[in-house]
Amino acid sequence: MKTSIPESWSPIILPEFEKEYFKELISFVTSEYKNNKCYPQEEAIYAAFNWSSFKDTKVVIIGQDPYHGTNQANGLCFSVKDGIKHPPSLLNIFREIETDVAIPYPESGNLERWAKQGVLLLNATLTVRAHEAGSHQKKGWETFTDTIIKKISDEKEGVVFLLWGGYAKKKTKLIDAKKHHILESGHPSPLSANRGYWFGNKHFSKTNTILKNNNSKEIEW
Predict the structure, then answer these.
(1) Which of 15, 74, 79, 140 could form a disulfide with 111 if both were Cys (CB 3.0 to 4.6 A apart)?
(2) The dihedral of CA 198, 102, 64, 213: what is its sign?
(3) Annotated active-site positions, please?
């Protein structure tokens, strides 16, 4: 597997590479990429860590697993490559941003622009087989990403965690709510959003209010 971990994340991530669960996980993932079409591209598996250093991470958004459609996933949760049609969840995210912070609906669904500002866009599972949602779940990725979430909670203060939907909300047990800010709502998927569990959560303005109160630069959503 093609692996490149930024220096600031290395003390947190590299020790996991030596553990037995991770060696078994990479053996599975290597086989999957060799024998099946998988997403994201190998070089983008750890993309969530490439744009913002551990020190500069101030917002964490947790997804479940990558998009499994053709050429959608780019290694950041909810994000797609430039020029790719926006999936329904991302479309609803942008609609909420329009009404919440009055930012026009963007042409590109590539969220690297958020990541560069200190937003960690972390899927719980970092890989998936093409057209098979959840196909790489429960193979070890969750152990790895839970470790990342807990390390952020343990070693930083004042991070805003955005937990959308039941799966993400389960991660509250990893986060020290006395040190950090947790904002929860329904998932932006049409099933949840159309039932009234997503629109109007104002998570984007609330996040910026928290950051401003912490004397931290607000996110340009």
Answers:
(1) 79
(2) negative
(3) 65
